Amino acid sequence: MKVFICANLYNLLKVRLIFYKVNVLLRHIFKKYGKLCLVETLFLGWLIMDKFERKFGKYAIPNLTLALIIGYALGYIITFVDRFRGTDFLSFLLLDPYKILHGQVWRIFTWLIVPPYESNILFVLLMMWCCLSIGMVLEKTWGTFRFNIYIFGGALFTVISSFAALGFLYLFYGSDYVNFVETLQAGVWGAFSTYYINVSIYLGFAMTYPNNMVRFMFFIPMKMKWLGIIDLVYMAYLLVMGGVLTRFAVAAALINILIFYLTNIRRFSIKAKIRRAEYQKKAEAPKMHAGAAYKHKCCICGQTDVSNPNLEFRYCSKCIGNYEYCQEHLFTHTHKK
């Protein structure tokens, strides 16, 4: 037991010494540029994020976007049922910090299934399909753990900003706050919705694939970076001209996007570029002779005598079963037992 405690203390001191040396080095290098605090924060944030990914990456939720879309579908079902039956069950799921403090703690989580308001079912399906496809691409590019951090970070900042907005209203409205909430409760707390989580997903895609071409309004070809700029301009407009609670909601989304991007910018420039290049190569590569008949096919790379007539194919005598390999993988594959 004593040896274990001493080993942990030694490792802790070693980590502290490394951070101290890094801190001294950064102070020496960036002192004359006046960018010490920002550079230190970004560098240490990157180190901490990598350490968390190594330690907690196994707990990340795969296909998180699909889970969000299923939640949105449930929220839209509740919305349509409320509309046809004249009920208001969805209002019990909204993120309302005032009611959370008075016992309705489920609202901390249930607001995540409240979808952005949309009355047209076609636009609902289009929005859900776009969000799902973009989210899955980002998860493959960033990695499951970092995509989880991005989404849950946005949700956490939204919850925190709602309580900050509650304190702001209480501070400025005082004893009239209760009457204010009773009068405008649905419109007020509806500002804290999943709309800004969807916007952050689109902005994340625009930052990752700025030159990717999409069809804006189904007809206009446009690069993702311009759509991202449009979203940022609109959010800046809401931040300046919107209501008090809208400003808090927008600020939460922008803070999450900024912190995530700055603490992962080094990651984007190294590992994510490799993942992004591999994904684009697979997405853009044409399917080779999908309908053509072939006699031989490598079970490793998938090449056939139709796609590459110059290749030679052989069966492996050491593999159990009929496994055929091309000349490039015949002597390098792992035998199947």
Characterise this structure.
The chain has about 325 residues and is mainly alpha-helical. The chain has 3 domains: about 60 residues; about 220 residues, no CATH class; about 45 residues, no CATH class. A two-stranded antiparallel ribbon has the order 1-2. It has a two-stranded antiparallel ribbon with strand order 3-4. α6 packs across α9. The longest helix is centred in the last third of the chain and has 41 residues.
Summary of the model, kept short:
This protein has 337 residues and is mainly α.
Which outline best applies?
Answer: elongated
Q: Unreliable runs, pLDDT <50, ≥5 residues?
A: 1-17, 32-36, 286-290
Tally of strands: 4
Mean pLDDT: 75
- Identify the strand order in the major beta sheet: 1-2
Q: What tags apply to this protein structure?
A:
disordered N terminus, two-stranded antiparallel ribbon, 4 strands, elongated, two-stranded antiparallel sheet, mainly alpha, 337 residues
Secondary-structure blueprint of this entry?
Layout: H1 2-30, H2 36-56, H3 64-85, H4 97-100, H5 107-110, H6 121-142, H7 144-173, H8 177-189, H9 195-208, E1 213-216, E2 220-223, H10 224-241, H11 244-284, E3 313-315, E4 324-326
Helix pairs in contact: 1-2, 2-11, 3-6, 6-7, 6-9, 6-11, 7-11, 9-10, 9-11, 10-11
